[in-house]
Amino acid sequence: MKKVLFIDIGGVLVLRNQKPIIDHLLLIKEFRKTAYLGGKITLEEFLVNKGLNKDKIKCIVEGQNKVWGSEILNEKLISFLLLNKAKYRYILLTNNFKDVEVPLTKLNTPRFYEFIVNSAEVGYVKPDLRIYEYAVKRSGEEKENCILIDDNIENIKGAIDFGIKGIHYKNINSLKELS
Questions:
Q1: Range(s) of the domain holding residue 113
Q2: What is the pLDDT of residues 79-114, one digit of tens each?
Q3: Closest CA to 123 of 58, 37, 50
C-alpha cells in the first residue's frame, strides 16, 4: 500500500527567488490568514475594507504581484517525488487562492499529483484540523498512512494534532526519512 504525501505549495513545491519586504506587511499576513485563503474576497477588496486609499492599494497589489512573479519550482523536490512515485501517492494541500493552478501551469509543474486540496475552495485554512480531515477523507486513505510536508511549523503541529505525521520542510534533506 502506498502512503499519501500531502505536499504544501508555497515554501515547499514553489520557492521564491527573494523574500520581498511586502511579505512582512502585517496587512498581507492578516489577509492571508483570514479572508483570502478562505476564498472569500480578493486582496483589493480586503484593502478597501481596511480603509486604504487607491494609491496605497495599487502599491500593495503591485508589490504582491512581484512577490508572486519571483516564484520558482523546487526542482530538487520534483526529482525526489518522481523518483519515489512507486512508494507514495501525492496530493497538494495548500492555503492558497482560488486559481492556484494558474501559477503551477506558468511554472510548467509536471502533473505528478492526483489533485489539490485548496483552502480557498474548502473554506478551512491550515492548521485548522478540518482541512486535514477533508484531505484525508478525499484521499480515501486512513490518516495513519498520511504524511504532511509543509514549511510552516504551525501547520505541522495541526496535522500531528489531527493524527497525521508531519515533516517540517526546510530543504530537500528534510525528506531523507522518506527515501
A1: 3-16+71-178
A2: 999 999 999 999 999 988 777 887 888 889 999 999
A3: 37
